[in-house]
Every structure is written in structure tokens, then in C-alpha cells.
Amino acid sequence: MVRSMDNSKITYLQGKCLVASPSLDDERFRNTVVYLCAHSPQGAMGFVVNRKITEYSFLDLVMQLPVSFGHAIPPLALYHGGPVDKVRGFVLHTTDYHGGDCVETGGGVSVSSSIDILSDIAKGAGPKESIIAMGYASWAPGQLEREIVADDWLVAPSSEDLVFKTKDEEKWQRALDELKIDVVRLSQFSGRA
Predict the structure, then answer these.
(1) Residue 172 burial (10 A CB sphere; 0-12, 13-18, 19+)
(2) Please, are residues 39 and 144 in contact by the beta-carbon 8 Å criterion?
(3) Residue 125 burial (CB count, 10 A)
(4) Distance CA 27, CA 37 (A)
(5) How far apart are CA 144 and CA 64, in angstroms?
(6) pLDDT for 96-138, tens place per residue?
(7) Among the listed residues 90, 136, 142, 138, the one whose alpha carbon sits nearest the alpha carbon of residue 113
(8) For residues 190 and 23, is the Cβ–Cβ distance under 8 A?
(9) Is 50 exposed, middle or buried, given 0-12, 13-18 or 19+ CB atoms closer than 10 A?
(10) How big is the CA angle at 84 (ends 78 and 89), to the nearest 5 degrees?
């Protein structure tokens, strides 16, 4: 929850992106962009959308699951979604796909966690764009708000273009650019009072 400038309205950040501040001193989140799929008084949950897993791929994943697939499985990467429950998979995808347990979360993004979407992606019948995240990031009630106040995170609008179409190595800088933030100047003034 974040209060508006006049303190009259509480705003939740579901469907927004968190952009790691240059001063964030947590290696797990340095230079990351986190898509927030949930934010409420009970806490927050999101997925890192710009850190690929290099050790294994979508093909490795579907070969371990009871998933039906077509002749040629698409060459998709998997992503480090966050430090919690790293063996659990989630699919962030465009809103054109509506199968299974799909939940539209905002910013042109939906989230699914059923095996059906993995099967559809493997068969070439999945959403137009997707990110398959292993694990997730979560915050206890009030924790994310405290981290935002401590200048660990900046809040940016989410878009299908930022989440799915921007190159991973450019997402962090693009999110900062959309906020019109100069990293060099921000780094000079960041710190704790």
C-alpha cells in the first residue's frame, strides 16, 4: 500500500513493476525489474522478469513433466522468478491466453501456474508472449512499503512491451528511463539519512 500525495487514498501496486534502486544491496535483486502480480494488506508477490536461468531451459523442464508437446519444442529460456520456492513454475503471459487458472493482473500481463499452459506453450498453442519463472519474490505485510520508503525500489508502470519485448539486459535501464531517472544522479544522492 502506498499513500497518495494528499494521503487521502491508498494505492496498491499490483500490475506495476518494481525497479531495483542502484543502492539496493541485495545481490538477488541487483539491477532487476520485478513484475508485481499481487499487492494487498496481506503482502506482495512478484516475479523478476530480466534474469534468465542459464543452467537449464524450457525443454529440460517439459521433459521432466507430464506435458504433451509438438514435434519441435520452442527454444524458450526460463527465468529466476525470485528466491522463494525456486522449483515452482509460473508463467507470466499476455492477456490473449485464457486457459486453466489464468489470472489477469494488470499492465497487459496475466499469470498462470497450471501444467496446461506449459503443455499449450510446448505445442505452440500458448500465449503470444510469455516468461516462465521458477520461483517468486514475496513480501510480508508492510515489508514492501518499508523497502520503497528506504529507497530500495522505484515503482514503474508495467507494459506488455517492457515485460515481454524488451531485451532482458535492457529492461532495468528502460524502466528507469521511463521514470526519467538518471542513474548517475540517483546514485550520488542515494543513501540513508
Answers:
(1) buried
(2) yes
(3) 12
(4) 22
(5) 35
(6) 999 879 999 998 999 999 889 998 998 888 999 999 999 999 9
(7) 90
(8) yes
(9) buried
(10) 35
